[in-house]
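Recap quiz, item 2
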Amino acid sequence: MNRLAAFLRELKSPGNFLAALFLALLVAGALLAPWLAPHSPVAHGNERLISPEADHLLGTDQFGRDIFSRLITGARVDLLVSFGAAALAAVLGVVIGLIGGTTKGFPRMLAMRGIEVILAFPPIVFALLVVTLFGPGSLTLILTMGILFAPQFARVVYGEVLTISNLEYVQASRVMGSSSLRVLFLVILPGALPPVLVQLSMTVATSMLLSSGLSYLGLGVVPPTPSWGGMIAEGQAIMMTSPGLLFFSSAAVVATVLCFSVLADALEKSLDPRRSRKRGAVRQAPKATVA
Amino acid sequence: MLAMIGKRLAVGLVLLWVVATVVFLALHMVPGDPARIILTGTGATPTEEAIQNLREQLGLHLPLWEQYTRFLGQLLTGSLGESLRSGTPVTELVGQRLPRTLQLVFATTLVSVLFGVLFGALAGRRGGWIDRVLMVVTSFSVAIPAYVAAVVLVYFVGVQMQWLPSGGYVPFSDDPVGHIQTLIMPTISLSLAFTAVVARMTRTAVLSVGEQDWVRTGRSVGLKESRVFSRHVLRNSLTSVVTVSGLQMGALLGGTVIVERVFSWPGLSELLINGVTTRDYPVVQGTVLVIAALFVLLNIVVDILYGFIDPRGRD
């Protein structure tokens, strides 16, 4: 609970608070989209390319579809893909990291070398290879990115497990006769989870960058399902006459990615107080920017 | 040093072999008949004969191990197969476009490392408002996907202001000025996040190196502050900058794909995306292998460079 309290304390700074608020509203908007959306996100209408007004909060696109309705409906699939991929990556990564951290010999080598193989593929190129074979779609995106982003989790967990296994309370638990599985899941794993949580928040941001990029190319989420990347592509087509769609959809992607990384920073600070005290504290730099 | 280079190269080769195997197996992991899926994927209804032909062309009628040895044999002789659509050797297609993609990668790296180190060192040394502004600006620029930056740049600089061409490519030999002009916007869009990451890394490194005892010693024996900073603090900060730049440069291999598309830059992007949409498997497979090979090579180069900069890291 101390950690929760520390995290809530972090939220008192205005930047972190705004980020959390935005994400909360976004998730709520996405969940309630079918009831919140004033118009159908996919039905074509006669009022094309109109500017923001009372009936159409953010105006309409080239097919007369309400941009606001499309944005919150698009948030559903974008968030689903990003969270899904990050969650899958976390589960895979934690399992691989635990195997690597607690075994010796062949299983450890297989786990840790396997990670290097995944890391040898540039993410977007690997995703394109998978799309060629399996066709585009949300499920393809989740599975691909889940595998692609698992190594970061595995490394984090691996490192934590190695450090934690040597700590006194773990040894004490062993001496008291706990089974090795009990030690692993009830003693070591809880200690390794905080950095996983930080990594999770960063991975959601990375997944959103990559998946929206693929959707922009028309190789991610398949139209007519609205997605932010797809909307940016549509917005680009009409930016000469009405740049609204381009700006609103770009702003949605940028704001969401930004908020998730701000949240990751806040989480990291609250979970590891040593890092927040000094100026120049080690901030985890984004591993790689894709898309 | 030589032993270390040899060891890294050997590990790299093994890694490449595993990568090639994974790419090879990917085709066989598709449920159903890959040949049929490739042909129907574009919406056409192929004849049984066409499917049979493709199966033979891809070697799918052979036993798996024979396909695998054939595949590796081809790789060793430097062949990546032929495009299903045009019949052109994939190596030729990639060879044409790779230099243009690499040009973007190098231009972006150069710009990002220069400005990143400059801003990061400035913020780390001066602190105060410069530092705060840098932290906010870098948070933002990391969150902007390169393709979004590209589209927005096209809108403002290309369409509204008409300062630079919105896209396209002019060979350097035809028109050097035009060539540079078409290079500017793609480089800026790709540099935003890269510069931010380098700047943050430099700042962090400068701050933590600045606290070392030997820096204090340097000051106390009367070295000038500027000399302490440039010769000792900054120089020792560069190891982590090299590491992070290498990682970022690796992400650019392939990461340029979408931005190239926005600016109609004729690099690997066109090849890959057309390959994916027409399900031209050998083209995509070949391009992926080439990019992965460059990626592995880059990591080896970074490791070696690291050894040169910081002798403590040598095995």
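The mean pLDDT of chain B is 85.
The radius of gyration of chain B is 24 Å.
End of item.
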